[in-house]
Amino acid sequence: MTTPPEITFAETDLDQIAAAPGRVVVFIGADARLDAGARRVNKLTRGGIMRLVAGEKFAKAKDGDILSVTYPMGMAADAVDVVRLEKRCSVEEARAAGAALAKMQGEQAVLILSGNHKHAAEIAFGFALRAYDFGPHKSEEPKTRGPVTMMASKPEELAAKAGPMAAVAEGVFFTRDLVNEPANILTTDDFAARLAAMQELGLEVEILEEAELAELGMNLLLSVGQGSASPSKVVIMRWNGGAADAAPLALVGKGVVFDTGGISLKPAAGMEDMTMDMGGAGVVSGVMRALALRKAKANVVGLVGLVENMPSSTATRPGDVVKSMKGDTVEIINTDAEGRLVLADVLWYAQERFEPTGVINLATLTGAIIIGLGHENAGVFSNDDAFCDAFLAAAKGEAEGAWRMPLSPAYDKQLKSRVADMKNVGGRPAGSITAGQFLQRFIKDGTPWIHLDIAGVASVKSDTTLAPAGATGWGVRALNRLIADKYEG
Ligand code: BES
Ligand code: MN
Ligand code: ZN
Predict the structure, then answer these.
(1) What CA–CA distance (Å, rounded) separates 146 from 387?
(2) Which residues make Cβ contacts (< 8 Å) with residue 476, sequence separation at least 6?
(3) What is the pLDDT of residues 299-337, one digit of tens each?
(4) H helix or E strand, kind and range, residue 149
(5) Pick from 393, 163, 175: which is nearest to 280 by CA?
(6) Is 33 strand, coil or helix?
(7) Domains plus CATH for the chain?
(8) 3 state DSSP class of 110
(9) DSSP conformation class of 31
(10) Interatomic CA distance for residues 53 and 34, integer angstroms
(11) From 26, 307, 401, 454, which residue has the greatest number of CB atoms within 10 Å?
(12) 86-107 burial: b if 16+ Cβ within 10 Å, else e
């Protein structure tokens, strides 16, 4: 498993600066005022920092830009990184600055002189998030990052703030690993085993195998996996950090470990991207890990449907009619619209068994959401304005793009079937909305519900502020914040 770098918080000791190896980092705002750490670096370099700050480059620098002085005279360090950052910067800017430093690190040690910056913990969090690298399948030895130390005026206070953030970073890394992992490694068995291992963290983990799923009547889910040699599973993770009698929040994830499309086979070009079709389940798993690591005071249950969508002689055929756990029948017109089939049964099961106060499902559900929103925003669908607004606020606070889309019974006619209660596709128009309408049929009246279509944001081709190219971990931070803000008293 890829783990975030450990960042040590220490009392500011100016006398350690001269001999510090690697990179020494200082923060200076537009007013060009040096704090004690920057003043010491300036003194050691005989005015080097003052000259830099007086120069044209610094004048033109934007918030978050880094100006580096390499091999500074009078210091053991390879470089001094001057980060142009205001004392009163936003959380987002502080994280971006930390991320930019992580990107520059290489194998060196890093000494960050954070002074008394109010967002020092956020700088460390941004650093940790951007330090991710998915290396398990490269023969080349992974680069080992040097130790990272952040000096601050109140290191204990800072460490207390940074603790829960480190838990969230570890949750994000867990999600990214799952999403980046190829499907020959991350089989349904392997995925379930990784989740079972989280029992060590105090999570209750339960695995429902095919026989039990059949017993429960989860035929829609089973119909997706029946063409694969890998067994379908539902994994249930429970974190009970709240009041003993309080109903939980339920998180439900689509975990299609590989989506070939099934008999409605996808085209070859780009099919390799479907290793990320378990992204919803990956986010649910990462959130549960973060909650356990930071011992959240809330009751949350995470459920993931793990299946592989393969074509074979045992696969579901277009035209097959299958009865859901709820009892409604579905005509499967297109076996590539499989995510909604998996979710329908797991959503129903989650409500029947746990009577949750709310349900949030996540899924790389439709290509259409990418056409609508690109890779900048996930599609948000909900039957409850207050619940939805709370989520949108949390997403905004974490700078995770999220945009509400409509639901309406007007779209239901697209799902009418001649032979069954509904069909699983609604045609080209509003493809993401008809998928949402399909899911809503498996939500009980009165259950607050949010559906997050993360097809565009779960994994991206170029790097973003807080992540390298590939899996982003989108949603772990937003959901963690929603839980912290709304479910932890
Ligand atoms: N897993 C795909 C959606 C997807 C597409 C995720 C691109 C990430 C990137 C989903 O199972 C799917 O195949 N959806 C179909 C639905 C259609 C058949 C109604 C789609 O979007 O084309
Ligand atoms: Mn599909
Ligand atoms: Zn899919």
Answers:
(1) 43
(2) 168, 171, 172, 175, 283, 286, 287, 290
(3) 999 999 999 999 999 999 999 999 999 999 999 999 999
(4) strand 148-152
(5) 175
(6) coil
(7) 7-158 (3.40.220.10), 186-487 (3.40.630.10)
(8) strand
(9) T
(10) 9
(11) 307
(12) beebebbbbbbbbbbbbeebee
Return the DSSP state at 464. B
Pocket test for ligand 1, best of 366, 424, 438 (most atoms within 8 A of CB): 366
Report whether residue 367 contacts ligand 1, using a CB cutoff of 6 Å: yes
**DSSP conformation class of 6:** P
Q: Is 368 in the pocket of ligand 1 (CB under 6 A)?
A: yes
* DSSP letters for 211-257: HHHHHHT-HHHHHHHTTSSSPPEEEEEEEE-S-TTPPPEEEEEEEEE
Q: Is 339 in the pocket of ligand 1 (CB under 6 A)?
A: yes
The verdict on whether 266 is a catalytic residue reads yes
- Helix or strand (DSSP H, E) at 438: helix 431-440
Phi-psi region of 85 (alpha: psi -120 to 50; beta: other; left: phi over 0): beta
Q: Which two tokens stand for residue 131?
A: 């330090």
Provide the pLDDT confidence category of residue 489 given band limits of 50, 70 and 90. confident
Q: Give the full edge-to-edge strand order of the sheet including 110-115.
A: 7-11, 148-152, 110-115, 23-28, 79-84, 66-70
Per annotation, catalytic residue among 87, 103, 154, 266: 266
Q: How far is CA 265 from CA 229, 271, 275, 310, in A?
A: 17, 10, 15, 9
Tracing tokens 């959901």 back to the chain, one arrives at 479
pLDDT digit string (tens) for 436-458? 999 999 999 999 999 999 999 99
- What's the distance, Cα to Cα, between the start and end of the chain in Å? 32
H-assigned helices in 16-154? 36-44, 48-54, 56-60, 91-104, 120-130
User: In this predicted model, what pLDDT tens digit does every residue of 98-118 receive, in sequence order?
Assistant: 999 999 999 999 999 999 999
